[in-house]
Structures are given as structure tokens and as C-alpha cells.
Amino acid sequence: MPISDPYLTKQASPQIDNPMKAIIFDLDGTLIDSMQLWREVDAEFLGKRGITVPENLFEDMPHGNSFIQTADYFRNRFNLPDTTESIMQEWTTMVREHYSKSVPLKPGVTGLVPWIKEQGILIGLGTSNSYELARIVLTANGIWDYFLTAVTGDMHLKGKPYPDIYIKAAKDLNVSPEDCLVIEDTLSGINAAKAANMKVFAIYDADADNDRAAIIAAADGHFTSFGEIQGAISQLIGAKYE
């Protein structure tokens, strides 16, 4: 959503003259520790329909991984009678309470996000998840108001690894893609950011271990904590960090 959205009536800190104008975060597996929850949702959703989760569930997903595209993929792959919209709503219902009460931020996020704003850097969100769930979980964790745009997977855009989500986020922020840093945890997200001509830092998440070597090779930096990422950003923009 662009900054004119009623949920996003926020003021950015005045921008200082540095080479990084905006930082755009992924959500699941990056800002929040939620990937295992989604694995459980997959198992419960398919189990109710008498289907066992295949080991290669997402290997053949053809058109990106947005919320809409993933629901459409489930409908087609498993020949479900459900509509794409009803699948998305069922997933939202299944995880809404968790996102409002029990899905935490990853360690270091609470300090990093306000610090980024203090440096005069714009903050955006680019996620395959839905707008509703993104707003719920980031509000519950006290950082939603820092995000000047939220581009989400229930918008009619090609999902990651296509660059569309990140390109729209930069456009909403009125920043050139070349002046953006993306923080991601997955290979598809990193590839989306690189396709958008953005710098990308990878944050470690155990759910992406199978792609670890490719993630390290594709990203501009790979980090195991947000403290390390804050230090790297400080070096890039010449800010003091202790």
C-alpha cells in the first residue's frame, strides 16, 4: 500500500545525505519468526482435505510466491474445489490469532527499525504475505508505524522471485531502486531484489538452510543477526554504531 493508505499516515525522519535512501524488509523469516507456523498451516490445510504434504510442495511453483499465486497454486496442484479467494481467507483465519498474539520479532529488530528511521532512511515492507496479516503482526509487535509503504502478496503483482513487489515499494517511497537496500531470508526474495537492481542483505533463517550456499552467493552480504546488519549499514552510510 502507498503512504496515502489510511493505515500508513506516518512521517519519515528528514533524510540525510547518504548513499542509501530506503531499506525494504521482507516479513516472514526476516522480521518475524513465522516459517514453522506456515509449515503447520500447510499440513493442517491439506490434512483436512485428506492430502499429505508432499516433500516437493513448492519446487514446481511456476509463477512466483505471492499470497494470491500460492493459493492459486494449491488450488490447481491439488485439484481443490475451493476458490483462490476462499483459500486465502482460510489461511488468514488459521493464522490471524497467532499473528496477533504469539509470533515474535526476530532478535534485534526492535532496536534496528527505529535506528534506521533516526538515520533519515525510509522504511518499507515487501512481502508475499497479505496486507491484513502484515499489519496485524507488526502492530502487535509495535513497529507497524515505522513502515511508510507495505507492498503485499494479495496485490495483483507477480510474486518473488519476480521484482514487482520491490519495484512498487521503491516507487511508493519515491526512491530509485539503486538507492534501496533489501533485507531478505530466502533465495527467491534475494533474486527478486537483485532483479529490481537493489542491494540485498541476507539474514539467516533455518527454514532456508537448503538454499544456504546459493543465498550466500547471490546476496551482497550474509548475516546471522540484525546486530551484524546494523553494523554493516552503519559502515555503508558512515553512521556511528556501538
Your description of this structure?
β4, α7 and β5 form a beta-alpha-beta unit. The chain has a six-stranded parallel sheet with strand order 3-2-1-4-5-6, sandwiched between helices. The two termini are 34 Å apart. The relative contact order is 0.18. α1 crosses α3 and α2 packs across α3. It is built from nine helices and six strands; from the N terminus they run βααααβαβαβαβαβα. It has two domains: 163 residues, Rossmann fold, CATH 3.40.50; 67 residues. It has 242 residues and is an alpha/beta fold. The N terminus is likely disordered.
CATH superfamily of the largest domain: HAD superfamily/HAD-like
- Overall CATH architecture of the largest domain: 3-Layer(aba) Sandwich
Alpha-carbon distance between the two ends: 34 Å
The biggest beta sheet is recorded as:
6 strands, parallel
The average pLDDT value, as a whole number, equals: 89
Low-confidence stretches: 1-17
Number of domain units: 2
Structural class: alpha/beta
Going across the biggest sheet, name each strand in turn. Answer: 3-2-1-4-5-6
Count of individual beta strands = 6
SSE succession: EHHHHEHEHEHEHEH
Rg (C-alpha, Å): 17 Å
Number of helices: 9
Principal-axes geometry comes out as globular
CATH topology of the largest domain: Rossmann fold
Instruction: Kindly estimate the percentage of residues that lie in beta strands according to DSSP.
Output: 5-15%
Helix content: 40-55%
The CATH class of the largest domain is identified as: Alpha Beta
Fold blueprint:
Layout: E1 22-25, H1 35-47, H2 67-77, H3 84-101, H4 109-118, E2 122-126, H5 131-140, E3 149-151, H6 164-173, E4 180-184, H7 187-195, E5 199-203, H8 212-218, E6 221-223, H9 226-237
Parallel strand pairs: 1-2, 1-4, 2-3, 4-5, 5-6
Helix pairs in contact: 1-3, 2-3, 3-5, 7-8
